[in-house]
Amino acid sequence: MTLSILELRGVEKSFGRNHVLRGVDLDVAPGQSLVVLGGSGSGKSVMLKNALGLMTPDAGNIFFDGEDVTRDQGRSRDAMRARIGMLFQSAALFDSLTVWENVAFRLIHADRLKRKEAKERAIASLKKVRLGASVADLRPAELSGGMQKRVGLARAIISEPDLIFFDEPTTGLDPITADAINDLIIEQVKGLGAASISITHDMASARKIADEIAMLFEGKIIWRGPASMIDHSGNAYVDQFVHGRAEGPIQPSI
Amino acid sequence: MSNASTKTSGGFPNPLQWIGVGILATCQELGRLAIFASRVKFAALTPRWFVGAILRQMVSIGFYSLPVVGLSAIFIGAALALNIYSGGSRFGAEQFVPTIVVLGITRELGVVITGLMLAGRVSAGIAAEVGAMRVTEQIDALKTLSANPFRYLYAPRFLAAMVTLPILVLIADIIGVMGGWLVSTQALDFDSTVYLRNTLDFVTIEDVAVGLIKAVVFGGVIAIMGCYHGANSKAGATGVGRAATLSMVSAAVLVLGLNYVMSTLFESIGL
């Protein structure tokens, strides 16, 4: 059995009396693309933040490349993050910096590269997501939503991570732009040979980028299987979600 | 059902429970603030320092506050001179105007006015900026890129405020005294040379130093309040607005409260 690049074991997280994660078990093999489906409020984002170390689980453990990183701080946490890329839902670009400074942020601040060299690598990374050198000196606020996502992707892949997280990569984009982002994600993730975990509720995106799909419901993974099995999961919850029906075992959260 | 030790919503509300909940919440908040403040101080006092960020903050906090600080100081100095003159004239003590103006400005008013203006301009500004960064996940992004927000965001603001506030206060002192001099010589028939000589003969280095020491403390308080409320901002425009309001109010109250405490302290050690 190959070692997982990331493994969550029995992860629980509560906010007051709101038990968001109730024992999540999940693992991703190196080079594998896993999509986690889940409705609004199912705990997808909280799961991602725990996996990234932005939150500490109340119970359970998180293993990165075989090592327990659940409560890591400081240098060991930074060492893990140097091997992880993250594309935030809103791209989360720093609006006080230019586009290339955003893309090269890790190179400048953590790796202490010279600015000239960092800029060259940033422009190379922008090229990979089909953005020209002309945007390098713009501010993030001057870009469209789709372009901001691309810049976010360029920032996530610049240090050639082993694992990339995508938080709703296509939310808020038109279908054509969304598909272009999906293509870029597949191309770049496969190009790096990296593993990826994407959380989404966009079925078109999930079908396209996933090797395997898991479904998170009420703080637990209730189903997992190959992407080709998603229409024959034999799970009523998954069926309802895949076909987007208001009637079924899942109550709409309105 | 009406058991006071449970938090059930059933039964008659127990006023003691509200008091207890309120006190516990206050203690928790103070604890969180104390931990946050000590982490900011630790990040400010140990490498590595983001020099570029510190310099940018010094310009934004210090340089761009000059107009508001100068204007406030000149009006306060002028009003102070007028009031001391009208009060002093009741028992023939008008000649004390320059000495009391310079003492009042350097020991109290220069630093308090600067502190209050910056509680508004700087503390609320920091809270809004950091709050907006938090709600758009930029602070999470910083962490995932191995940049500690305490080092990259908060410590530069803290250091910049502690360095620039004394400079601003020194400028406010000079402009405030000038405001008093302007009114006294233009409207109150004081001789310019005599006024200035009285001012310079009377003021001591300690008077100015007292104001500057207070300014360093106020600078730290203003920056920490802005960062803390920004970092704990709730989502949305109301969340960020509330963070800005809270930081401004808490910084202003702390400036006034700490000013009194420090004045008492300096008094007791004879400064």
Describe this structure in words.
- The complex is a heterodimer of chains A (254) and B (271).
- With 254 residues, chain A is an alpha/beta fold.
- Chain A folds into 2 domains: 1-83 and 163-254, Rossmann fold (3-Layer(aba) Sandwich), CATH 3.40.50; 95-160, no CATH class.
- Helices cover 34% and strands 24% of the residues of chain A.
- In chain A, the strands form 2 sheets. Chain A has a 6-stranded mixed sheet, with helices on both faces.
- In chain A, a hairpin with a 2-residue loop joins strand 1 and strand 2 (18-28).
- In chain A, helix 5 (115-128) packs across helix 6 (145-157), helix 6 packs parallel to helix 7 (175-192) and helix 7 (175-192) runs parallel beside helix 8.
- With 271 residues, chain B is mostly helical.
- Chain B has one domain (16-268).
- Chain B is built from 9 helices and no strands.
- The longest helix of chain B has 39 residues, at 97-135.
- Residues 1-8 of chain B have low confidence and may be disordered.
- The A-B interface holds A 49, 52-54, 78, 81-82, 84, 86, 88-90, 92-95, 105-106, 109-110, 155 and B 50, 133, 136-138, 140-147, 152.
Share of helix of chain B, binned: over 70%
Which consecutive residue ranges of chain B, at least 5 long each, have pLDDT under 50? 1-8
How many strands appear in the DSSP assignment of chain A?
Answer: 10
What is the spatial order of strands in the main beta sheet of chain A?
A: 6-7-8-3-9-10
What count of structural domains of chain B?
1
Number of DSSP strands of chain B?
A: 0
Overall mean pLDDT of chain A stands at 92
- Count the helices of chain A. How many? 9
Distance between the termini of chain A: 43 Å
- What percent strand of chain B? under 5%
**Oligomerization state of this entry?**
heterodimer
Q: Indicate the structural class of chain B.
A: mainly alpha
| Fourth CATH level, the homologous superfamily of the largest domain in chain A | P-loop containing nucleotide triphosphate hydrolases
Biggest sheet features of chain A: 6 strands, mixed
> What is the succession of H and E elements of chain A?
EEEHEEHEHHHHEHEHEEH
- Counted up, domains of chain A total 2
